[in-house]
Amino acid sequence: MKIRKEMILVRKAIPTIIALLLVCLLTYLLFLDHPDSVDEIVQDILFSISALVLLAITIRFFSLIMGITRIRREFGRYVVDKFTHTINQCKPLHQSFGKKKKHAVILLHGFISSPIVFDGLLQELNDNQIDYHAPLIHGFGVKRVQLLFSLTEDEWVRQVTETYDILASQYEHVSVIGHSLGGTLALYLSQIRPVKHLILLAPAIFPCSTQRVHNLLAENKFLYALVPWVFPLLPIFDKMRDDFDKKTAEKYNLYSVAPTRGAFNVLRLQAKIDVKKAQYETLDLFYGANDMAVDGEKVWDYFKQNNALHRVHRFDHTGHNPLIDGEGDFAGWIVGHILREELAWPPCKCNGAA
Predict the structure, then answer these.
(1) Phi, psi for residue 94 in degrees, rounded to 5
(2) Helices H / strands E in the chain, number of each
(3) What is the mean pLDDT of residues 41-60?
(4) CA distance 318 to 320
(5) CA-CA distance, 56 to 52, in Å (whole number)?
(6) CA 8 and chain centroid, separation
(7) Contact 255, 233 (CB under 8 A)
């Protein structure tokens, strides 16, 4: 079947260029010397407004050019397909070992990522014949990159809830493992569906001094519309990545740009989190001491302040993803013990990690 290809530049950047030229023309015509027809104060106000609009359009233009250039470098010149095609290494993962059992696990990946981040854990699950399903969260891991501009937290919630309901109809118990955005989705899922083991790997919740700023960005409709329009794509520089192994970073980091609206939707999802409503038998928090994206210590404090039963696993030589960074094998081994219920629960009360 022949696939029709289109250029993102035509659909995104060209309208921005036209808007930029129109504003420049309007500004020029408006501020011709007409002292008799335009009051000086009104002229100054209009000039300020025009300057701000011009600045916003200019920033949007360069953000689009930067983002599209990076996307082209990764996926080729034509990256918009009539049909959505999943990138080969990003396909959903699933495994069932014969007869249906009492327990299955949902694996939820993070923002601008894919199920491939769990490949180090799969050996542990396969060795213990633990059934699992790792969906590709909508908007990620596909070559139709315009989906990056239309991500919604409601669609994410609908997808993971549907996945849970299908598994719950076949298994007696369902556990959920989530990393980053996937951790936030896993925690929210536990508010509306009961889970057996809730395992959160650096969940993207921000219970810190910036919480008010995050809530403002998530809940203010004007900022929610304006900021992603001005900054549609944000670059992810190498120095912003906290993976210790460069080869690991190259393997697991899907995009070199992040959609701003998608990041806002992570904040909107986080605003819906209420750990007191979570339904689980056990809850385990994993985080790396060198995580530049999520402050694991503050997430742990958040659980303690809300009297949530928890075990915490801190990794001193790990960044944002405990499963693929320096201590990934050890983290996977712990996850296997949790799923096999070989760790005591509730954990002993102590100051360190349980």
Answers:
(1) -160, 155
(2) 12, 11
(3) 72
(4) 7
(5) 6
(6) 22
(7) no
Higher pLDDT, 327 or 202: 202
Q: Would you report the helix, strand and coil content of the chain in percent, each value rounded to 5?
A: 50, 15, 35
> Higher confidence at residue 153 or residue 223?
153
- For residue 35, the 8-state DSSP code is T
Q: Cβ–Cβ contacts within 10 Å for residue 85, how many?
A: 11
Tell me the C-alpha to C-alpha distance, in Å, between residue 269 and each of 86, 204, 264: 25, 10, 9
User: Is-contact 233 258, C-beta < 8 A?
Assistant: yes
Please give the DSSP secondary-structure letter assigned to residue 10.
I
Q: What is the DSSP string of 111-123?
A: TT--GGGGHHHHH
State the Cα angle at 219 between 214 and 223, rounded to 5°. 85
Looking at residue 11, its amino acid is R
Taking the whole predicted model, whether its pTM rises above 0.70 is answered as yes
Counting residues of the chain whose pLDDT is more than 90, the rounded percentage is: 23
